[in-house]
Design the sequence.
């Protein structure tokens, strides 16, 4: 059945994200409320922009970028929406978090990665 990204999602870290309506090209925007951060400043909701495939079976792949408003870092994020019959939709995702480092020799420690599952709120 059609898996639709629009709406509120949460992950096991307690982070929440809102995806606004997806346009005819599969583009969407929204906001990301992270529950965790290594930044010094207080956490704030941050904008996300992305796009998804609109294929017929509805289990779309997608990607988006989060531009953190309180940290000099950016996260990118790819995943697939799974909507098994009778099951609730989940988003199986992988992400990269790129933080600004003060010198190129420190570039080695600038990118973190992870996986995460989102379920509907
Ligand atoms: O500290 C900073 O510099 C800014 C804040 C970074 C928050 C990170 S992004 C990856 C991880 C943390 N929060 C979260 O929900 N994560 C997560 O695993 O969710 C997956 C995800 C990752 C990127 C974009 C959307 C969702």
Sequence:
């Amino acid at each position: 059945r059609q898996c639709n990204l629009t709406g509120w999602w949460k992950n096991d870290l307690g982070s929440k994200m809102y995806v606004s309506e997806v346009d005819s090209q599969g583009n969407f925007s929204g906001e990301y409320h992270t529950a965790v951060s290594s930044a010094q400043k207080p956490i704030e909701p941050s904008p996300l922009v992305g796009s998804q495939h609109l294929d017929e079976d509805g289990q779309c792949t997608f990607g988006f970028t989060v531009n953190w408003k309180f940290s000099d870092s950016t996260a990118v994020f790819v995943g697939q929406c799974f909507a098994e019959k009778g099951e609730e939709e989940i988003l199986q995702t992988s992400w990269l978090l790129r933080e600004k480092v003060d010198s190129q020799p420190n570039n080695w420690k600038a990118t973190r990665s992870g996986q995460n599952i989102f379920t509907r709120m």
